[in-house]
Amino acid sequence: MKKSIVLLLSLALVLSACGSKEKEKAPAEETKTTATQEAPKETPKEPEEQKMATAETEEFAFSYPASWQAFDLSQLNQPAIKAAYVDPAPKVAFADNVNVAADNSKLTAKENADQVVAQYESGALAASIKDFKKISYTDAANKGGILVGEYTNAQSGVPVVLTQYIVPTGNSTYTMTISYGKESYDNGGKEAVQKMIDSFKLSSKAFAADGTEKTSVQETTAKTPSGQTQMADVMVQIIPSVTDNAGEMTEKTYNYIVSHKDLFPAVTADSKKAAKASVDASITSRHLFKNITPYLDKMVQVSGQVIDIEEEETEIGTIAIIHVGDENDNSIVGLYMNATGDILEGDEVTMVGLPTSLFSFDNVGGGTTNAILMSVSTVQKK
Questions:
Q1: Are 324 and 307 a contacting pair, CB within 8 Å?
Q2: Which of 150, 235, 279, 346 is most buried as measured by Cβ atoms within 10 A of its Cβ?
Q3: pLDDT per residue over 289-315, tens digit each?
């Protein structure tokens, strides 16, 4: 059960490569957005590319250049992307474009922007983005922020100006990503970017899109220094990807991780000792599969053979996903925010951590495997 982690850590550039003279088109009726506004024909003084249409969804609305066309979102395989428009007739080998994405990030706009910059500058997206340089970050209304940067599109070699308008709602974050070839940006694109940003409006549904349980998690975050909640916040973002959107971290587990942040992960001798001392040895995977709810803030220990293990390098360090079959023939999937050393598939290991969520995934035999997601404090090879 391989899962990609990097894309979850920031709302990266999604459509940057779509302009290498591969003009993807989709009829407007195939998307959830509609163009409803156009500048009157009696205003020929305004350049054609500056005429604006309006995209509307249940969660937000914004303006975009009326000559652009809706992008077929099914080609992206990115459910976080809610709307996208692209120039169907670019003058260079890069199509100017805009997309709006939503994720469950609880970070501030500035923290989100810093993660994006770190990821781009690290070279993690070198297949699309080369030589990224931050130009500016400015605070915006309603705790939002605007990030502007430049990079070279790896496929075409075209210099690109990237603008991200980041708008936290308290329960989630909406990001409008606008990409212009630099020549296009310098010749009217900059003004169009400002129009798009000024037009972006969220509906009441966007602020109520997440459940009350996640709101409670956000309230906890608001009362706690951001450095203390950072790891828990990142784990909240990653879990939907690990579980194919079937699992989530509850308030009870979140609060435990925040209160015991030195244990996730436990990397010092003292913290490892504290983690093991916190284990309730009476709790087994049989208890967890019967009813996980009473144990969401209880440290447990499971041992078994590694069925699958994956590590991925991110801007915050190595993250590992460890699938273990335990002594009760149950599947435990551990999310470990650290490297696992010499542990490999087939090794016998012991994991200490918090039961976090029940979920299921398709197995190689064509059936479904039920699993427990564990937020791992320590993992040790036997």
A1: yes
A2: 235
A3: 999 999 999 999 999 999 999 998 876
